[in-house]
Amino acid sequence: MPTLTIDGRTVHADHGTFLLAACRKAGIEVPTLCEHPAVEPYGGCRLCVVDVTRPEWDGWSKMVVACLFPVEDGIVVDTRSERVMETRKVVLDLLLARCPETPLIRDLAAAHGIVATSFVRNPVPTDCILCGLCTRVCDTMGMSAISSVDRGAGREIAPPFRAPPPACVGCLACAEICPTGFIQFESGTRKRRIWEKDFDMLRCPRCGRSHITAAQADFFAGRGGVPRSYFEICDHCKRADLAATATRLAGEPATPARQG
Amino acid sequence: MRIESLKQFDTAVAAAREARSAKGREVWVCCGTGCLANGSKAVADAFGAQIESAGLATTLGLYHKSTGCHGFCERGPLVVIQPEGLLYTKVGVGDVPEILTKTVGKGEVIPRLLYKDPATKLAVAKYDDIPFYKHQIRVSMRNIGRVDPADLDDALAHGAYAGLARALSAMTPEQVIAEIEVSGLRGRGGAGFATARKWKACRKAHGDRKFVLCNGDEGDPGAFKDRSIMEGDPHSVIEGMTLGGYAIGAHEGYLYVRDEYPLAVVNLQKALADARDRGLLGANILGSGFDFDLRISRGGGAFVCGESSALMRSIEGRTGEPRAKYVHASDKGLFDLPTNLNNVETWADVGAIIANGGAWFAGWGTKKSKGTKAFSLVGKVKNTGLIELPMGTTLRHIIYDIGGGILKDRPFKAVQTGGPSGGCLPADKLDLPVDYEILADNGSMMGSGGMIVMDDRTCMVDVAKYFLKFLSEESCGKCVPCREGLKQMLHIFEDLCTGRGKPGDIERIERLGRGMQLGSLCELGKSAANPVMSTLRYFRAEYESHIDHKACPAGMCRDLTAYEIVSEPCTGCHQCVKVCPTEAIAGKARQKHVIDPARCISCGSCFDVCPEDCIRFIPKSLSVPEAASAPARVSFGNPSPAPARSGGTGGGACPR
């Protein structure tokens, strides 16, 4: 188990993990915008920069992003060195220029002492911080329906050719993981709409709740060889079924699954 | 015929040499991209047709061949007559009969087609006597311009694959790495990492499937050495990569070539097929039992794909974006397998090093930078083109002896080295020997070997802006400091160049530049501020002038510059009137002319043509539209309160 020092505290990190997890284990907060446990680390927002050194390096240190730097035994980490804090401030200053009205960015910038950007304010404020969480979760889910398009200052998140994405199944993972609520959608009991694509909702045959799109059920059934009917039942009823089975096997009288 | 053993290789080389010497005389026509653009294909075809129709092959033993780039693109199409070594420049189809009858037939030199040394104004007949070539020592470019890239036998006759044959017959992989270590070879793509160390790490990496990659995604503005090597001597790259594969223990590799280099792709494909046919590539190379094959992967035109991790993602078929390299490519590279990536020039050096020995290569250069290095010498020099020189050559020697000095003998101002990640070095750095450390210590870098020479009519703020613009379009946009930082940096520079600079801008630039250096994900972003930081380091006064006086000391920022004609010694020669694109200059013949500031777009064309040097530029703030009759008499650099500008075109009609 690698042992490292973070801001003066000794931390025993788990093998094969990244520095960010070790910081959190030590109770040290490092700001991040593009990190999420559901997806692979990305290293795009650059907020989790930290200084890493070793006693034998004679005072030389390197700046790395904590989300991607594998833990090593004996390293000494400074999460709040002067240049780390200054780099975070420049990044937040730049993000605030891009997203001047986004509460998440405004709050984080304010916490770092930046109330107004020192750069040119985006004339068309956006809430998209280009953290890439939506595209990565879409990849992780197996659809890869949306991606980043264009590059540099023109980069944005969009479906192919900016048309309703053929691969999208309407699972809403992108909208739910989006930290700023940039990705818009409408969802009712019968219909759902996201990325300008319409989906029919399926109702749970047990409780009648609309919980999944037909495209989602088709996609999951087609992928895993599990019958479609399994996905039509909502998670709540599946849990109730499981509980009932467990109770029956334990010889207790089963309580009927709650409806609704 | 397939070469199955070392003995057969020696026989094949001997046969190729024999065939070559049997050709009594040869006409080499450069068919590199530059000369092709100047019509060299037609020249080569004309030689072919006329040699054949006159039966000169039998009567004179005359043959012709198309070669790769001689590096002297500005004078193309180039034709070399062998064995005399005569160089003819700017040869047209119409010159072909004359060359055949006079030069080949009677041994007469045609003075009109000779190169004229701009310094001495004298014609130079022999290729090797031309200062541009005389001072060069070519290793990576050893066969370019000498071999027909589409003829493997020609390459064999010129020593291709000799290093590979030596290694496969007499050296272990460890010995190959040791030889490279002795040579002191460092990565020619710019970073200068020790090649042998890289190879060792990859050889040690676990796994039986490893990759060897060639970075042919050369994209720096003004750099074209890799293109020239791939086009002109593709076998040198293939030989180097095969040796690399042997040393590392890899059996497959990719040549990543940018798609904007179509001729490189065609020539490499032909070379790969030829090498495979002859048993120099593929299974059981030269009967040694070693298998190695290569494929070409064509880049889609993103500059960032020259970054190693982005390049690998691109070959994998994913978006070409860099990723963090805390785990080295030698452990987890292409498809997460051990991978070794080197630049085209590095690979081209390898074959020659193994054939001639590491000590031979290490005989050139400085303490830490060994061997020779290719540079693309461009900009305001008299001789532009590709050169290769020992490391440690001074900038002055490169620019004045090989480059022939500054165009029109104007004063030298700066040289930009290393492309968009590099920096600008001023005149007092001209005597610096060029090597990796010295360039870096002075705020620039070796980079891909681009060298852009600038004269006094170059605005350093404008130069920095040019590179920022380039990079902001080429940044992948994955990380915040590079994507947003370049955009904001460009905003500041656009303000500086249009007179909207304000106090505090320099500090803002420095803060942002440092944030980008420290915070960016890959080297593109980390180094994106280098052109800014180096010009700020050496030309700070120019920045201050743009901000404090709204003036461009070089007279290049149009929004800040106005032109006026000084009465003495204007002779009224009318030349300025002829070139002015907006008819802003008026005046009768042999009388002083006048520029109408309201129509002038500050393009500087008049300034450039005036034979009497009587046009000067002044800060626009000192120029008044109606002042044609009462010109401001305030010289540049000494701005004093002047009537505010009231009108003018703003110079926006033809933005730079």
Total count of domains of chain B: 5
Number of strands of chain B: 19
Task: Give the overall shape of chain B, derived from the CA principal axes.
Answer: globular
Shape of chain A: globular
Mean pLDDT of chain B: 90
Q: How would you sum up this structure, described in words?
A:
- The complex is a heterodimer of chains A (260) and B (656).
- Chain A folds into three domains: 3-80, Ubiquitin-like (UB roll) (Roll), CATH 3.10.20.740; 83-129, no CATH class; 133-245, no CATH class.
- Chain A is 30% helix and 17% strand.
- Chain A is built from eight helices and eleven strands.
- Chain A has helices spanning 19-25, 82-98, 103-111, 133-141, 173-177, 214-224, 228-232, 235-249, and strands spanning 3-6, 9-12, 49-53, 62-65, 76-78, 147-149, 156-158, 185-187, 191-194, 197-203, 210-213.
- In chain A, strand 6 and strand 7 (156-158) form a beta hairpin.
- Chain A starts with a strand and ends in an 11-residue tail after the last helix.
- By secondary structure, chain B is α/β, with parallel strands linked by helices.
- Chain B has five domains: 17-130, 3-Layer(aba) Sandwich (Glutaredoxin), CATH 3.40.30; 152-361, NADH-ubiquinone oxidoreductase 51kDa subunit (Rossmann fold); 372-458, Ubiquitin-like (UB roll), CATH 3.10.20.600; 461-548, NADH-ubiquinone oxidoreductase 51kDa subunit, iron-sulphur binding domain (de novo design (two linked rop proteins)), CATH 1.20.1440.230; 554-656, Alpha-Beta Plaits.
- Chain B has a five-stranded mixed β-sheet with strand order 12-11-15-13-14. Chain B has a four-stranded mixed β-sheet with strand order 2-1-3-4. In chain B, strands 9-8-7-10 form a four-stranded parallel β-sheet, with helices on both faces.
- In chain B, helix 11 (225-232) packs across helix 12 (234-248), helix 19 (460-474) packs antiparallel against helix 20 and helix 21 (505-519) crosses helix 23.
- Chain B starts with 5 loop residues before the first helix and ends in a 37-residue tail after the last strand.
- The A-B interface holds A 42-46, 49, 63-65, 68-70, 83, 86-87, 89-91, 94-95, 97-98, 118-120, 130, 132, 147-148, 150-155 and B 302, 304, 319, 323-324, 326-327, 472-481, 483-488, 491, 508, 511-512, 514-516, 518-521.
